[in-house]
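Can you give me the bound-state structure? Components:
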Amino acid sequence: MEIPVIRDVLEESNALAKENRALFDEHKVFVVNIMSSPGSGKTTLLQKTIPLLQARGLRCAVVEGDITSTLDSERLSPLGIPVVQANTEPFGGDCHVGAHLVQAALKYLDLSALDILFIENIGNLVCPAEFYLGENFKVVVLSTTEGEDKPLKYPLMFRECSVCLISKMDLAPHLDIDVELLKANVLKTNARIKVLPVSSKTGEGLDAWVEWIARKG
Amino acid sequence: MEIPVIRDVLEESNALAKENRALFDEHKVFVVNIMSSPGSGKTTLLQKTIPLLQARGLRCAVVEGDITSTLDSERLSPLGIPVVQANTEPFGGDCHVGAHLVQAALKYLDLSALDILFIENIGNLVCPAEFYLGENFKVVVLSTTEGEDKPLKYPLMFRECSVCLISKMDLAPHLDIDVELLKANVLKTNARIKVLPVSSKTGEGLDAWVEWIARKG
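Here's the bound-state model for the whole set.
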């Protein structure tokens, strides 16, 4: 008698992610999975980044991951791009965007009309790092307000990411933050990560970030 | 033939939490489970709060939850109180402090010599809200830097907590934050929550917070 084996949850998740990846490859869509703590400024960053990419003729869309609410999608809709709100609430209130959620969101997007797809993950510096969604790269946004120690305390996130944006650089003068120490802690956790200090408010550093996206990493 | 049933994970967790609770009751220890996003200022708040409680003759200890590192415990050790670093890494890198972790930490504490025990949870506005550890109350720290929308996007955390400390009030003048709207969003999510604006830097609001702890809620 054959014993039925339930496939490992991560294996199942990776299989779905590979299906997403195949679709992205077929349509040559560059996909960035953006992760961070709540309130580090992911949505504001996208509000500033997308017009700069549009100015280069790049067609963008966003899968907006949240547990509940459409607040972030509403903030992005004035950009006139396709935005799909992907709430985990109907999937049990998951604390991260799963590959199945991206797959569900892709039904609402015309990939043949896209160059860049951003997946804005749920604000959580822990769990989202564990899941491959089919993206080209993972990016972490870390705000200057969060302190220098976060890469050392949440290392998996920084190990998994290709880029670390240090956001809210405009606030640094008002904080007891040592940005050089913060950068050093990021690099101590992942020597190959690209560290880009940015401010969505002043525009500092956005050129380098946009350049990275336009060059597709 | 009897079919073995593995007990539900939450049921198992709650059973351990009740064992913790029985120990706290036996020794009349008031236990506060402090939760927040990474970098909202939980450890700094404890550094400022505990001396004010000590000045009132209250004996404090901290169970310091982290995935990895002893950074926060090292910051608290100058207070001369018992601090137990409880890392989830050996337990699989859990994204929240579990009741089993508190139980393991209690082996290192003399509860008969304590009045107040703080459990500083892992920086995560999502998962920790789901778990009862045996505490008297859950408290959420939300920094002014995180924006007004967080209670609407992460409602479970705010529904589960008895107190919401709005931290880093000293930074509010440098931010595009409407603190009244933030408070309204907290109360919209949980009408019974106590909202206390505080600043660990200036000391604003710490009296009301310390009073709440000293009165044991």
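A couple of observations. The beta strands of chain A are 30-36, 60-66, 83-87, 116-120, 137-143, 163-167, 194-197. The first helix of chain A runs from residue 9 to 26.
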